[in-house]
Amino acid sequence: MTMVAVPTRIEARRSIWLAPCLLGLTILAGTAIGETRLPFETVLQTLANHLWGAGYAVDGIDAGIIWSYRLPRAIVAACCGAGLALTGVVLQALLRNPLADPYLMGLSAGASTGAVLVTVAGVGGGAVSMSLGALSGALLAFGCVVLLAHAVSGGAGGGRAAQSAAAIILAGIAGSQMFNALTAFTIARSANAEQARSIMFWLMGNLSGIRWDDVGPCVAVSLMGVALCLWHRRGLDAFTFGADGAASLGINVRVLRGSLITATAVMVGVLVSKVGAIGFVGLVVPHAMRFLVGTRHDRLVPASALAGAVFLVAADVISRIIVPGQVLPIGVVTALVGAPAFALILVRGART
Amino acid sequence: MRIEVQQLSAKIHRTPLLKAISLAIESGELFGLVGPNGSGKSTLMRCLAGLQRPAAGRVLADDSDLARMPARQRARRIALVAQQADTTERLTVRQAVELGRTPYLSPLRGWGQADGAAVERALATVEMTGFADRLWHTLSGGERQRVHIARALAQDPELLLLDEPTNHLDIRHQLSLMAVVRELPITRIVALHDLNQAAVCDRVGVMRGGRLVAAGPPHEVLNEALLAEVFGVAATRHAAPDGTPRLHFSHAL
């Protein structure tokens, strides 16, 4: 035991330092790289000016791009990547389904319905912002899915745990379809072509509207998510042999499942409302990390959060520079990278 | 641990699966549970493990009501090896057994030496120490079942519940598994399909249609009349060469 434990502990201690450094570097890179490439030096000087008033002479336009535009965008991208990957870890563990992803619970469908109702149908009369509409829609859809899952699994009384996992997944599919239909209905009825295009753009993930105001909530919910998942790491491990297995190991399955799924749903709801539905991060990153660091959640949780953050910042950079003069929806980039990666993981997983 | 079941009834989706079962199992006893498919063995096991809430009646573990026991407390005293517990995760045998220490760990109390020792002890008991670093999905059915038992033993339980542990195992693994179970010094309740395996238990309980229809020493309970009535088979009892009684089944009635 000790022979195994000692090197992993050293490794863990080293990675505690490595993780924030890697994350910081990624965010810096995300800030420096773009249509106009700015030198790292300028980025660091601008940061120093803003953080402790260092007083370097930096070109005003460059400083504006770095501080007001790219930095908040990179930070929010990192938060979204971490949050989506974590939610994937949690749902895949709790529902024992390798295809579970953050949008399983109807969140993206609900968010898009909410956003469309606000922007296209004019619900709220201009007093409600698009992201507030999206957040309400996401949480409403999540509520519907939970109620439906509860009804399907036979209420509080008795369905077996495995059945209730299946019920959640089926309820999520049904709920998503219904809210997607509502979105399509609203667009078909009242949107013009330009609105439809901008909605589609938003649905595929769009970070261009991100400002400092958005950073606070995103950082808060993703830190909460990381902390909560680390706190419950052993509970997540206990689901390895299914919900009954977890229950016989002393885990209160109903409480843990309910609280973790609700917490991650709120987290994803906030993130989706800021940036739209970015696919494949929550599905692919946890699987990739299981290959790299194993299935134990004490490592899988931080590794997935970090990898998700790095991946999404990189995807955002790619989405900005790959087509000159145009920004692609980030969801297009994550899907183009994510879908083949997922296929590769499936094939490799089948072989080993 | 002594376990006592008082007038226990259980329902799933309003279908009654257990009807007024009363039973007491003494500390250190090896109790076999037999009955046809759907007779309620698994449901009773789930009630005894605290996974299924009784609709009526109660389960007492050393005089404390199981329904009122906190889940962690319960998992330190009662371990269950369920019937179909498999995983697609790539984890090693040792990691699977380490899960058994979950009820002793908390977010703040990390893995300690006592936990490691309990895992090694459990692996040794089921003779799987040499397999500790093997991956779960490379194991055979018999080996997996042993790992499940090791995981349950790592919980340091006073009561071990085994739900048809010999299912899908070849005869050699069936016998060696039952030999492991027989040697354990704690209270054990084993649901079994093979009635001849049930004959090695201290006592057996026979279930039919959610009721416990008989309980007692195997050679008294498993007689021709009961086997015909409960299982619907014609059976005769012989003495094996070593003198122990053996059941021979000739045809379905």
Keywords, separated by commas or semicolons:
heterodimer, A: 352 residues, mainly alpha, ABC transporter involved in vitamin B12 uptake, BtuC, 14 helices, B: 253 residues, alpha/beta, four-stranded antiparallel sheet, globular
How does this model look, in words?
The complex is a heterodimer of chains A (352) and B (253). Chain A is mainly alpha-helical and 352 residues long. Chain A contains 14 helices and no strands. In chain A, α1 packs across α2, α4 packs parallel to α6 and α4 runs parallel beside α11. Chain A is globular. Chain B folds into 2 domains: 220 residues, 3-Layer(aba) Sandwich (Rossmann fold), CATH 3.40.50; 31 residues, no CATH class. Helix content of chain B is 30%, strand content 30%. The radius of gyration of chain B is 19 Å and the shape is globular.
Described by the principal axes of the CA atoms, the overall outline of chain B is globular
Whole-number mean pLDDT of chain A: 85
| Topology-level CATH name of the largest domain in chain B | Rossmann fold
- Please give the radius of gyration of chain B in angstroms: 19 Å
Number of contiguous helices of chain A: 14
Mean pLDDT of chain B: 90
- Alpha-beta classification of chain A: mainly alpha
Query: Beta-strand percentage of chain A?
Result: under 5%
CATH architecture of chain A: Orthogonal Bundle
Spatial gap, N to C terminus of chain A: 26 Å
The biggest beta sheet of chain A, please?
none
Distance between the termini of chain B: 40 Å
Q: SSE order of chain B, as H and E?
A: EEEHEEHEHHHEHEHEEHHEE
Briefly say what this structure is:
The complex is a heterodimer of chains A (352) and B (253). Chain A is mainly α and 352 residues long.
What's the topology here?
The complex is a heterodimer of chains A (352) and B (253).
Chain A: H1 2-32, H2 40-52, H3 60-95, H4 107-119, H5 130-152, H6 161-190, H7 193-203, H8 212-231, H9 233-238, H10 242-248, H11 253-275, H12 281-293, H13 297-321, H14 330-351
Chain B: E1 3-12, E2 15-25, E3 30-34, H1 41-48, E4 56-61, E5 64-65, H2 71-77, E6 78-81, H3 93-98, H4 113-125, H5 141-154, E7 159-163, H6 171-183, E8 187-191, H7 195-198, E9 203-208, E10 211-216, H8 218-221, H9 224-231, E11 233-239, E12 245-252
Parallel strand pairs in B: 3-8, 3-9, 6-7, 7-8
Antiparallel strand pairs in B: 1-2, 1-4, 4-5, 9-10, 11-12
Helix pairs in contact in B: 4-5
